[in-house]
Design goal:
14 helices, 4-stranded antiparallel beta sheet, alpha+beta, 62% helix
Length: 362
């Protein structure tokens, strides 16, 4: 269309043989009035493209007032159109990389924190691994155009539960505890989950610390330790840590990752909210917690008894050895020695005489 208007201005701007050629329209200035139609069309389109794309080679230029006015308008249109295209392409490219950008921005903050606090290498590796796993676990739902949590909060409870059941179906399938529960409880539970990752040998919980989370083991294996002794192995799909959260107090045992482990953590506060809203689940968890606490106490008592038995046995052995040594020492001064026998008799005689003298005096 721009080319057509440019050609129209060119053919209406002159054609008089007696007029100055420089004051005539561009069609006559460049002697295109006698050229075939396709040549005229291509020339007009060539000017339109070079002007709108802000290139402007200048081989076909504007001389008449009409041509100059139209050219300035088309320059403004071209600049605006070019800026719009560039900004649109930048937005599209940025939206393609929004997910990776969110991860990169988070990791830049983590690395800056590690450098500022001068954390040891081992702790730095654990922190980086945790945030990388956490970022990737929500990677599929990251977008610059919407906030997932905000959208879900605006939905009704039923629809929200259905969406969460679909989004987190892989996690739900890996946790048997959630299989027979009502959808609303499952949706509320998974919405409160916090993903965590631990490397082999990392402590998930430590004995004697405050119980503030329970855990669902999604991937890997972990071990329950009393001191340095492995008491039990926790496999995928199991949960632990509910005893301290429900019954209160501190951790009664340590849990260490035996392999690279992925977990979903549920805070004590959120657990109490769920238990208050779902009494049947609360009764089940409390019963399991009581049973496990009883078993753990018995197991720990047996461990302490075994250690005490082994310790008392060693003391008994030492006492027996000491008694045998004393017996051996006593046998070395046996009454078969005549000198020692005579001395004992003299001492006994003197003691008898002294007792008699004391009686007479009294």
């Amino acid at each position: 269309m721009v080319g057509c208007f440019w050609f129209l201005i060119g053919i209406t701007g002159g054609g008089d043989d007696n007029a100055d050629i420089l004051n005539q329209g561009w069609v006559y200035r460049y002697h295109l009035d006698s050229s075939p139609r396709y040549v005229q069309y291509i020339s007009a389109m060539y000017w339109a493209f070079s002007t709108l794309t802000t290139v402007g080679y200048g081989d076909i230029s504007a001389r008449t007032p009409q041509e100059q006015t139209f050219s300035m308008l088309m320059m403004l249109v071209g600049v605006t159109w070019y800026a719009f295209i560039v900004s649109s392409m930048s937005t599209i490219m940025a939206s393609f990389d929004a997910k990776n950008k969110a991860v990169r921005d988070k990791m830049l903050c983590v690395n800056e924190f590690i450098r500022t606090t001068k954390l040891p290498r081992e702790l730095a590796v654990q922190i980086r691994g945790f945030f990388e796993f956490k970022a990737k676990s929500k990677h599929a739902y990251v977008s610059n155009n919407y906030d997932v949590d905000e959208l879900l909060d605006e939905l009704g409870s039923g629809l929200r539960a259905d969406i969460l059941m679909h989004l987190e179906k892989n996690v739900i399938e890996q946790i048997p505890f959630l299989q027979d529960k009502v959808p609303q409880f499952v949706a509320d539970c998974v919405s409160m989950f916090a993903p965590m990752v631990f490397n082999e040998g990392d402590f998930i919980v430590k004995e004697g610390t405050q119980a503030d989370e329970m855990y669902f083991l999604v991937k890997g294996t972990a071990g329950v330790f009393y001191g340095s002794k492995l008491a039990a192995v926790i496999n995928e799909g199991s949960y632990f840590g509910e005893i301290g959260c429900i019954m209160g107090g501190i951790r009664r045992a340590s849990v260490k990752a035996l392999t690279p482990t992925e977990l979903q953590a549920l805070s004590r506060r959120n657990l109490n909210i769920l238990l208050a809203e779902y009494p049947e689940v609360a009764d089940e968890l409390k019963q399991v917690a009581r049973d496990r606490a009883s078993i753990a106490s018995k197991g720990k008592s047996r461990t302490n008894e075994n250690e005490a038995d082994s310790g008392s046995g060693s003391v008994h052995d030492r006492d027996e050895n000491a008694a045998q040594t004393n017996s051996a020492d006593e046998s070395s001064t046996s009454p078969g020695n005549p000198l020692e026998t005579e001395i004992d008799r003299m001492v006994a005689s003197i003691s008898t005489k002294l007792r008699k003298e004391l009686k007479k005096t009294l």
